[in-house]
Design goal:
Chain lengths: 141, 227
């Protein structure tokens, strides 16, 4: 239960970060609180969209999925079932690959680091690790 | 039940994070952002010594003044399609000195902010780079609810000292200069953008680079004849 609660809390934090970046990209927020200024460079680059969809929006939707699965997983009827762990592992695994691709873009293509994007990537890594631990716990029982 | 109470505490934690995070986002939206007033009093300091943004040799035989608005789509078309040819054919060749004056139209809510973003770039000798970024990005930032972050991004991209740029934008120190520029346009008869002033005559609307070349040739010829 603790692992799934952890992924839910992290997912909510990720949703807030994604919403913040999306709101900036669409001009609802004047400037980003980002010490280096690299956030604006990344968010205004052509790589801030993926297949025509804002990366921040994709992130937000991904976190909504993580949160939804985590919340289902903590319900008493689902606590002993492995499906939520498998789904979280699969989703966060996909998220991990995408976050890795975005970090590679920041480092080697855009040459700017967005701290909020790094925070989001760290959250995805943490969700993946928790999902992995939960999956192993389920496998042992 | 321990399970139920744990779950309730967990829901409470989620609620606290959601409300706290939502509050922070709301605060960000309401946070002070640069605003460039239009009803500013123009002082002598806004006009003395500043005649506009220049490109080209000081001794060029012809001076063309462009009155334009960063949020005006026709000005964007001129800047992106015709102006590069004008730079190559007339300005770099030393035939024309270009003078840019802000003429922010009241129907364009971000014109003054954009003009101020360019003025702040001028402080760091990057006026024309910011000018180009503003026109290139016009179709994006003109749709935004508040584009100062986008302008700041341009400042970052062209290599400005962002802290100095931020301070300049928040001070709104060039609001009077922008108004003085607008007033000058009104005085010479500008009513729309872009409008070009050359040889004492106004030319309204987007001008092709060929038309401007002909105009520059004829003005240069006339200037040579009077010498």
């Amino acid at each position: 239960m603790r692992y799934r609660m952890g992924t839910a809390v992290l997912s909510l934090a990720g949703m807030l970060i994604s919403a913040y970046l999306w709101m900036f990209k669409h001009g609802f927020i004047g400037t980003l609180s980002c010490g280096s200024g690299g956030c604006e460079t990344v968010q205004l680059s052509s790589y801030s969209s993926f297949l025509g969809v804002d990366v921040a929006l994709l992130g937000f939707l991904g976190y909504v999925l993580f949160l939804g699965v985590s919340l289902v997983g903590v319900q008493p009827a689902w606590l002993a079932r492995p499906e939520p762990s498998r789904a979280l592992l699969l989703l966060s695994g996909g998220g991990l690959l995408f976050a890795g691709y975005l970090t590679w873009l920041e480092l080697f293509v855009i040459h700017a680091i967005c701290r909020w994007c790094v925070a989001s990537a760290a959250i995805i890594v943490a969700v993946f690790v928790l999902a992995l631990l939960d999956h192993r716990r389920m496998a042992r029982h | 039940m321990a399970g139920t109470s744990t779950l309730n505490r967990f829901y409470l934690l989620l609620l606290v994070i959601a409300v706290g995070g939502g509050g922070l986002l709301f605060w960000q939206v309401r946070r002070k952002v640069p605003s460039i007033p239009a009803n500013v009093t123009v002082t002598a300091a806004d006009t003395a010594g500043f005649q506009g943004y220049f490109m080209g040799k000081a001794d060029a035989p012809v001076v063309i003044t462009e009155y334009a608005d960063f949020q005006c789509p026709a000005c964007q078309t001129f800047d992106m399609v015709q102006f590069p040819d004008v730079v190559r054919q007339l300005i770099e060749g030393g035939q024309v000195r270009w003078r840019y004056r802000d003429f922010p139209l009241s129907g364009h809510p971000f014109s003054r902010l954009a003009a101020h973003a360019a003025a702040c770039a001028d402080e760091q000798d990057r006026y024309w780079q910011q000018h180009a970024m503003l026109y290139q990005g016009q179709s994006q930032w003109a749709r935004e609810a508040e584009p100062s972050g986008t302008f700041r991004g341009y400042a970052q991209q062209i290599g400005l000292d962002v802290a100095a740029y931020d301070a300049c934008m928040l001070s709104a120190k060039y609001a009077g200069r922008i108004q003085a520029s607008y007033d000058e346009g009104v005085r010479v008869g500008v009513g729309s953008t872009p409008t070009f002033l050359a040889g004492g005559r106004l030319y309204e609307g987007v001008q092709g680079s060929d038309a401007l070349k002909k105009l520059a040739d004829s003005l240069a010829g006339a200037a040579a004849a009077t010498r």
